[in-house]
Write a structure and sequence with these properties.
Shape: globular
Distance between the termini: 36 Å
Largest sheet: 5 strands, parallel
CATH class of the largest domain: Alpha Beta
Oligomer: single chain
Number of helices: 8
Number of domains: 2
CATH architecture of the largest domain: 3-Layer(aba) Sandwich
Strand order of the largest sheet: 2-1-3-4-5
Length: 247
C-alpha cells in the first residue's frame, strides 16, 4: 500500500465548491492530482488508468452523472460522492461507493471519510503467505467455505468471481464463498491466469467466453458456459473486445 499522501481526483461543476473541496483535501494531507467539471472529462481521464487512491464525484454535473461514472469505471477506483442531494445514497452504496458526503462538507466529516479509505486500502493489501502455506498451495486451486471447513476448487472449472459487500464469491457449478475480500486479491493469487475485470464487481476467465452481444450504453452482455450471462461496464467491454479481437 502507498504510505505517502492519498492521491485523489475531483469532479464538481460548480467552481466555488470545487475549490473548497480541493482545499479541504489538501489541508487533510491529500495530493489532488486532477480536477474536472463534467462526467465526460472524468471518464476520458480514467481510461488511462491513473494512479489514484480515490475519486470524489458530484452526483449532478454536465454529461454523465456521478452515478453513471461510477458504473462505467474501467477499474475499481474507490468513489466518494459529494452532493447536496441525499436521495441518491441508496443507489450510490448499491454501486459500492466508499462514502456519501453531503454539502457543505466539514473537515471533521472528511477526515472520517479518509480514515475509511485508508482502512480499506490496508484491508485490501495482499498479505504474504507463510512459506509452509505457500509450499502446500497447489497452482490454480483455491479454498472456499463448506460448513465449518474448506473445500478446494479448480480455477479451470471456475467461470467467474464476483464481489459483494467485501466478500468474493466463486462460480464453479455453484456459488461459493471464498476468504478473499476484493477481486484484486483474486488477481494477485493467480497472476498468470489472465483473469479479466469486466466490471467493478466481476472477474472472468476470458478464454471461456461463449458469446457477446451489444447492450445499452456501449456495454456488453457476456455469455459464459452453462448459459451464464453477465453485463460488462463500458471499460470492461473495451478490454474484452480487445482480448477477443472484435470491434
Amino acid at each position: 500500500m502507498n504510505e505517502g499522501p492519498l492521491r485523489v481526483a475531483l469532479a464538481e461543476d460548480e467552481p466555488p465548491n470545487l475549490r473548497r473541496l480541493a482545499r479541504l483535501l489538501k489541508e487533510a494531507g491529500c495530493d489532488v492530482v486532477a480536477t474536472f467539471t463534467s462526467g465526460h472529462a472524468v471518464l476520458k481521464w480514467v481510461q488511462a488508468r491513473p494512479d489514484i487512491d480515490a475519486l470524489f464525484l458530484d452526483i449532478r454535473m454536465p454529461g454523465p452523472s456521478g452515478l453513471d461514472v461510477l458504473r462505467s469505471l474501467p477499474d475499481p477506483i474507490p468513489v466518494v460522492f459529494v452532493t447536496a442531494f441525499s436521495n441518491h445514497a441508496v443507489e450510490a452504496f448499491e454501486g459500492e461507493a466508499l462514502d456519501y458526503l453531503l454539502k457543505p462538507v466539514t473537515s471533521e466529516r472528511l477526515e472520517r471519510c479518509l480514515a475509511r479509505l485508508r482502512r480499506r486500502m490496508i484491508d485490501s493489501a495482499p498479505t504474504p503467505a507463510s512459506p509452509s502455506i505457500a509450499a502446500a498451495h497447489r497452482p490454480n486451486r483455491y479454498p472456499v467455505k463448506a460448513g465449518e471447513g474448506l473445500v478446494f476448487l479448480d480455477l479451470t472449472k471456475t467461470t467467474h468471481f464476483e464481489v459483494e459487500d467485501e466478500v468474493v464469491f466463486a462460480h464453479a457449478g455453484g456459488r461459493f464463498e471464498t476468504g478473499w475480500k476484493s477481486l484484486s486479491e483474486v488477481e494477485g493469487a493467480f497472476p498468470e491466469a489472465g483473469l479479466l475485470r469486466i466490471h467493478r464487481h466481476l472477474l472472468i476467465r476470458p478464454e471461456i467466453v461463449v458469446g457477446v452481444r451489444p447492450c445499452w450504453g456501449a456495454r456488453l452482455k457476456v455469455t459464459l458456459p452453462g448459459g451464464i450471462e453477465l453485463e460488462s461496464s463500458r471499460g470492461g467491454a473495451t478490454k474484452l473486445k480487445d482480448y477477443l479481437g472484435v470491434g
